[in-house]
């Protein structure tokens, strides 16, 4: 698949980049995508939910009333789950929700997500660029020149660039990552995928291994 390379002003540079069919034009595997996204979301969970059981409640342990003759059920402690303020039975406990997936499956999921974006013509390739300083206005202008102001964008860089990252950090619909941080969830969550010529090369080399 051949795509025209644009500059930061949204104009064609005359150059073209050939996207590898083994990365951007495979038969997408929906189940691999499902598993990878499920793992990503599970790994985001803190798992710190906790409720107190009866042995953790602060309260008196005296017997509430005599065993017999009250006409009611026996009661030994105010901390019983049957009473207001008592402990909770089988309540949530801290746990780790994360799980592992094979590297090949994760790689297949990412290639499937990239292939979906290519099929939808949702990939924009830019020439390699940088910002001289940290300015949110510079990133807003970049997105506006590409006619993507109302789109969720994911910009993938070949390597970390603080000026570009910090310039985009305050924008709700923009996200900047490096090629080695690319996740299936991020690709699918973005309306438009912005790649640079350098990041295309980095991704193709990474998936070729």
TrEMBL record:
Query: Origin organism of this chain?
Result: Mucilaginibacter galii
Q: What does this protein do?
A: One of the primary rRNA binding proteins, this protein initially binds near the 5'-end of the 23S rRNA. It is important during the early stages of 50S assembly. It makes multiple contacts with different domains of the 23S rRNA in the assembled 50S subunit and ribosome.
Subunit structure and binding partners: Part of the 50S ribosomal subunit.
Whether Chaperone counts among this entry's keywords is no
Cite a single Pfam family from the UniProt record.
Answer: Ribosomal_L4
In the record, biological process GO terms are:
translation
Q: What is this protein called?
A: Large ribosomal subunit protein uL4
Q: Which PANTHER family match?
A: 50S RIBOSOMAL PROTEIN L4, LARGE RIBOSOMAL SUBUNIT PROTEIN UL4M
Q: Which family does it belong to?
A: Belongs to the universal ribosomal protein uL4 family.
Q: Which gene encodes it?
A: rplD
Keywords in alphabetical order, please.
Ribonucleoprotein, Ribosomal protein, RNA-binding, rRNA-binding
Tell me if RNA-binding is a UniProt keyword of this record. Answer: yes
Disordered as annotated region, ranges: 46-77
Q: Tell me a GO cellular component.
A: ribosome
The protein's matches in NCBIfam families, at most eight in alphabetical order, are given as: rplD_bact
The Swiss-Prot or TrEMBL record annotates one GO molecular function as: rRNA binding
């Amino acid at each position: 698949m051949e795509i025209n390379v644009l500059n930061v002003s949204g104009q064609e540079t005359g150059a073209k980049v050939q996207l590898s069919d083994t990365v951007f034009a495979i038969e997408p595997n929906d189940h691999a995508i499902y598993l990878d996204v499920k793992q990503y979301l599970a790994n985001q969970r803190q798992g710190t939910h906790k409720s107190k059981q009866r042995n953790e409640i602060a309260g008196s342990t005296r017997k509430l009333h005599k065993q017999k003759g009250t006409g009611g059920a026996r009661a030994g402690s105010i901390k019983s789950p049957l009473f207001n303020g008592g402990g909770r039975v089988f309540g949530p406990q801290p746990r780790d929700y994360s799980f592992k997936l094979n590297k090949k499956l994760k790689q297949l999921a990412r290639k499937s997500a990239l292939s979906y974006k290519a099929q939808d013509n949702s990939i924009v390739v830019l020439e390699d660029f940088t910002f001289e300083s940290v300015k949110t206005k510079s990133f807003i202008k970049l997105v506006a020149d590409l006619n993507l102001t109302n789109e969720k964008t994911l910009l993938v860089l070949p390597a970390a660039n603080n000026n570009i990252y910090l310039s985009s950090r305050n924008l709700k619909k923009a996200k900047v990552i490096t090629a080695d941080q690319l996740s299936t969830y991020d690709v699918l969550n973005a309306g438009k995928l912005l790649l640079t010529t350098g990041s295309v090369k980095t991704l193709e080399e990474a998936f070729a291994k």
